[in-house]
Amino acid sequence: MSAIGIDTHKGTLAACVVDELGTPRAERTFDNDPPGHRALLAWAQAADPDAVIGVEGSASFGAPAARFLIGAGCSVWEVPPQLSRRERIRTRRAGKSDPGDALAIARVTLREPDLPPVRLADWSLEIQLLVGAREDVVLEMTRVRNRLHADLRILVPGYGAKASNLTTSQHQRTVARLLRPHVGVQAELARGRLKRLRVLAGEEHALAVRIGARVEGHPLLTLPGAGSIVTATLVGEVGDVRRFRSSDAFAALAGVAPIPASSGQTQRMRLNRGGNRQLNRALYTIALSQAFHHPPAKAYIARKRAAGKTWREALRALKRQLIRTVFRLLQAGAGSLEMAA
């Protein structure tokens, strides 16, 4: 069996074919556009119509090519960057190049039996796009608030005694009154930023309503700490949860599964700083909420602390406990959301 590795970029696709021993047989670069995708398919079928294809970046620049190949009946899998990065060292090619990256991807594809499938465009991708759009608006609101705060510290020293934050409508109206007597460019810009904040708040609310409607009735909403935004983040990042063989595989993707770091007689586990950080943050939000407000979780944290764990270690342990419940609820909600879409 041979394998084809594809290294994806905005404008090009570098491909490499290896035989069953991992020896490179052919290399070529294609344009990352529809004609290039057709040329890639013809080249791959001529090399080996039964070859398994690995794509790094199948959710970004490589998404159109990967989905085109799947539509043509090819066996296509996603190659995580951390695997190809380690394999790149073994290629014994000096420096870094696109053909060398494609060779590393092809060898990983040939060797690894449990690569994740390429994520296709489906109902969960729309949820992910809405969550991402809301996140962009929230980040912009934070930026504008910070700039407005800097202006107010100069224009209205001590304004915080009358408006403790710049988030609520009540305090924004107070700030507008405080700015009325002031003239000049800085005051003008501050009033513009205050107006911009109100517009952004309306955009964020509209997106939050759309997101809530998309995940309405999802079983994950019954989990304490999982509101509509957290649920949508999990659903959008995971996609079709049925592509995961177990909750352990899901935990590895989310960066929740601890990593062995033992040596000799020292047996320990270290923190996993990899995985999908959006998933990890959503799980952290649930764990943190439960740690403060959910009695069973509060008792669990207390037991861990009594056993000598730090607060952060206890919270990580709670995240690992939650992963199985979250995985089960995602499985339960997969069918219902798909039908609703």
Question: How many β-strand stretches?
Answer: 7
When the domains are counted, the total is 3
- The percent of residues in helical segments reads 55-70%
Spans where pLDDT lies below 50 across 5 or more residues? none
Rg, alpha carbons: 25 Å
Distance between the termini: 39 Å
Spatial strand arrangement across the major sheet = 3-2-1-4-5
Give an account of the 3D structure.
This protein has 341 residues and is α/β, with parallel strands linked by helices. It folds into 3 domains: 3-111, Nucleotidyltransferase, domain 5 (2-Layer Sandwich), CATH 3.30.420.40; 123-214; 219-340, no CATH class. It has 12 helices and 7 strands. The chain has helices spanning 34-47, 63-71, 81-90, 98-111, 123-155, 169-179, 185-214, 228-238, 247-254, 277-293, 295-306, 311-340; strands spanning 3-8, 12-18, 24-31, 52-56, 75-78, 259-260, 269-270. The model has no long low-confidence stretch (mean pLDDT 88).
